Structures are given as C-alpha cells and as structure tokens.
Amino acid sequence: MHIYSKQKRGFTLIEMLMVVAITMLISAALFTAIVQFYRFNDYALAQAYQVSYARQGVEQLVRDLREMTFADDGTFPLVRMDDYEIGFYSDIDRDDSVEYVEYRLATTTFIKTVYGATGSPPVYSTSTSEIVYTLSEYVQNEIQTTPIFRYYDEAGDEATASSTLTDIRYVEVGVIVNIDPLRDPGQFMLRSSASLRNLKAYE
User: In what order do the strands lie in the sheet with 78-81?
Assistant: First the structure.
C-alpha cells in the first residue's frame, strides 16, 4: 500500500513581486482614469455654466436692442456700430426713462454698461456709469476675428463702410464661448438677432 503525501506549495518571492507589481499597475491605471474622468467632467460643467451665463447675456442684449428708441434728449437711437461693440438708447427697465447702453468686448470679457440721463433738459454722460455687468469672461470672437455684431439695412443688405447709423434696421449677434480654446469639448456659438422695431417711426 502506497501512501502519497500532498504537499501544498505557496507563492515564490518572484511570483509575489509580480503580483504586487501587476496590482500596482492596475491601480495606477484605474486612478489615472478616474482623475481624468473627473477633470473632464469639471471642465465640461464649467464650459456648460459659462455657455449658460453667456446665453443669458445674449438674451438681455436682444431684449435691449428690440427696445431701442430715441433718447430723452432726442438723439437717434443707434449711436455706435462696430464689430465688437454696439451703443444705443433703450428703455431697458421700462420706467419711461431712456438709458444709454453699451455692449462691448474687451479681449475675452463681454461687458454691458448702462448710463442714465440726468438734469432737465436731460443730459447723458459716459464718464460715470450707473451699472456695469460682466456677461462672460470667455468670449473668443476677437481672437478668432469673428464679429459679434452684423448690421443690416431695411432691404436686408449687410452694412458696408458707406452705411450710416440711420440705415440700420436689423442686428445679428454671434458670441463664441470657450473657457479653454486648446481643449475639448470645444467652442460654442450663441446666435440671435433683433429687428429694431421702434425705428420704423423714423422712416
């Protein structure tokens, strides 16, 4: 009768080191993937927030443009029309007192500035503003040489160098938002437009 003894064999030192090394590699890869996931989501959330913030600013702009009207001192409604800046008179708070409003891009910061009239007869001074709003800090239009504002006359033709302020009846707005132009998910273009309805009385 033969008796067999079954000997249990454990891991050798080399096998243990290999297991530890493989475990560390898997853990490092998993940790890196988790970190990248959260970084991407943080970036995507920040981008989404800035797009939403800028969208609110564009909505304000379009509302103000549609309320464009003659100033309290009789000045024509549209005062300035540039690629990255527009200035006009509008009763933005509907209190029967017309304000002078400027929307402009300073590098990547899109700003709204409001000036009220003072005195009798009313006088507008741009030396002191009533309110300054920052609509977005990540607007890339100037860097990409893409105008924010495009202007059109009554016939629907885009304004040229020879066009005058009194020709304009329609404004298109396009704002490019991107918190980091070197990263995905990339830029977002906000588009809107406004017909300057209160100028029809001028015609």
Answer: 78-81, 85-90, 99-106, 109-115, 131-136
Q: Distance between CA 89 and CA 75 in Å, rounded?
A: 8
76-112 in b/e burial notation, b at 16+ Cβ within 10 A?
ebbbebeebebbbbbbbeeeeebbbbbbbbeebebbb
- Structure-block tokens of residue 78: 């549209």
Is pTM beyond 0.90? Reply is no
Structure tokens at 174: 């396009």
Specify the residue for token string 């709003």. Answer: 133
- Note the pLDDT tens digit of each residue in 70-109: 999 889 999 999 999 999 999 888 787 899 999 999 999 9
